[in-house]
Design brief:
The complex is a heterodimer of chains A (302) and B (376). Chain A is an all-alpha fold. Chain A has helices spanning 2-13, 18-55, 77-84, 91-122, 128-140, 143-157, 164-171, 176-187, 192-199, 204-233, 236-241, 250-260, 266-299. Chain A folds into two domains: 2-55; 80-299, MetI-like fold (Orthogonal Bundle), CATH 1.10.3720. Chain B is an alpha+beta fold and 376 residues long. Chain B has helices spanning 43-51, 93-104, 108-122, 137-149, 167-186, 200-206, 224-229, 234-239, and strands at 4-12, 18-27, 32-36, 58-63, 66-67, 78-81, 155-159, 192-197, 209-214, 217-222, 246-255, 258-263, 266-269, 283-289, 294-297, 305-314, 318-325, 328-335, 348-353, 359-362. In chain B, the strands form four sheets. Chain B has a six-stranded mixed β-sheet, sandwiched between helices. In chain B, strands 13-12-11-14-20 form a five-stranded antiparallel β-sheet. A five-stranded antiparallel β-sheet of chain B has the order 15-19-16-17-18, with no helix packed on it. In chain B, helix 2 runs parallel beside helix 4 and helix 3 crosses helix 4. The chains are: A mainly alpha (302), B alpha+beta (376). Chain A binds chain B through residues 124, 190, 192-193, 195-203, 206, 210-211, 214-215, 217, and chain B through 14, 51-53, 72-75, 78-80, 82-90, 99-100, 103-104, 147, 151.
Amino acid sequence: MANISEVNVRAAAIPPTEIEVKLRRQRRISSTLRYSLLTIVGLIMIYPLIWMIGASFKTNAEMFSSAGFWPKEPTLQGYIDGWKTSTPYTFGHFFLNSLWIVIPKVIGTAISCTLVAYGFARFEFPGKKILFATVIATLLLPNVVTRIPQYLLFRELGWLDSFLPLWVPSAFAGDAFFVFMVIQFLRAIPRDMEEAARVDGATTIQTLLYIVVPMLAPAIISVCLFQFMWTMNDFLGPLIYISSVEHYPVSLALKLSIDTTEAFNWNQILAMSVLTLTPSLIVFFMAQKYFIEGISSGGVKG
Amino acid sequence: MAELQLKSVVKTYGNGFKAVHGIDLDVHEGEFMVLVGPSGCAKSTTLRMIAGLETITGGEVRIGNRVVNDLVPGKRGIAMVFQNYALYPHMKVRRNLGFGLQLRGTPKDQINAATNEVSGVLEIEELLDRLPKQLSGGQAQRVALGRALIKQPEVFLFDEPLSNLDAKLRASMRVRITDLHKRLREEGRPATVVYVTHDQVEAMTMGDRICVMKDGYIMQVADPETLYERPANAFVAGFIGMPEMNLFPAVLTRDGDLPQLTAGGQTIAIAEGLAHRIQTGNGPVTFGIRPQQLHVVAPGSEGAFTATISHVEFMGHEVNLHARLGDAQLVAVVPSDRFEKRFARGESVGLRPAGSHVHLFDADTGENVSLATAAH
């Protein structure tokens, strides 16, 4: 020990050589450059969002007079007026509509995708390959292609201007992407635990509930998060199927405030946009840990 | 506890691959039966068919007096310990142990009592409130063992349970499992066990009887001594024993009654312990002798092959002497204390097989043709 500390002391006492000094300086310069570049690019990308938040506190007159994001005379007027909206309903009503679409859809997706993925990943049945190929094919099919047939179908069923066209496809594992994601995740989980449960006397459903679902939790949370964010932000779906303002979700309500006013009250629109973003952001940050676990382990085997 | 019977059990996979070719096996009540064989010999498949995790293509599996072919695993009265423990990762040890009982609808207080008893036996009381990821390999394996034990099944199934443990732990778990088996027997509730392993040391030390398998066939079922002393065929002879038995082609001739064997261009007479056992005529055979029964003598001695040393391995208490005889590579194990002379590579050495331990196998079928009575 004595020897080692002696060596250390001596090493510290020796002044760095010229080459060492040069290398150190080079390293410092290169990391300064690297981080400056990253910071600048990062700022450029996030600036519109920052600007939007800042601008939502500006007066309408100030909005386009400067590119800076910091309001000169901060005001909450945008939020107050925006919340009232130009319709008989407050923005809160549209938020509830959104949640009323999102929550059943998320629950339906989680349940149906887990069931379907479990079936594909763990059981052998006739026609499995063809069915799986079909699922993947719908994943590759652009959404737009199915819009018209779907619209006609739902019209025949008399489901227009209700939330059913938005809920039902998801409740039947209509989102092939999620099915695929859960299957990939399941494939990476060894079957031994399920076999142990079967030996312990569990039925297929008990195995799914007690063993598979808890192990799948990160994947299911990711599915819920994705579905939550995508549905919250979905514009086209509600636009096509929902016609009465009473049923509008926030995505349509935002557009409404642009349509109905001749001189746009940008601060109201931006204020409501900020509010619209908040639920997704909150949910994302709350579940971030599982979310990343879910998407990163889904693709990688082992 | 019950006996387990396999009658002409066949497994054919969907792609037409036949993994198990109609095997028959009786495991007696309270017996510790080891299934052993190289990778791909279908020992695990057989075990999984007994467990019900793999469908049975043909034949019959009986546990006690029930045919269980079409019963789900949970109804077969079995418990299984898996190679990678297969503990439920999200449940604490306590719940892992009690899960099977819980599914059966056992009242909570009984589950608790059983959990406490089993954890006492396996010394895992202090682990009850941990999650599987907080356990070491040995601890996890003990919990897996406890999960099987708590159900008091009719048959215990072990699928290479010690393969994931390091050598030292494996040895102690081996003792623990055999002790437990003995203890249950002494307590009057003998456990019927089927234990799959590819490790012959586990097989030899743990099994009451051992079933050696190869390519979906049973090669021999016998107790460890019989398996070692009287292997039914060349495969069993080569598989059981360390180092492997020397097996090489030879030609059997007789000088009167005295059997003579020619290998590598040399002919030796085996004076004792073989003549009365041979059940085959003159001709090509596979000669088998365990390295421990191949004695080192002076080159050219009577009854000894003269071989050329190719390699010497010092093992501590003994020395493995590798030598070439024609095309064949032989190994002789010599105790270190008798190994007075340092043999050098390329030197000639006499290797005399102990007559009573010589085995002759049919050159085509591999059948042992030097057993006094018919093979098993």
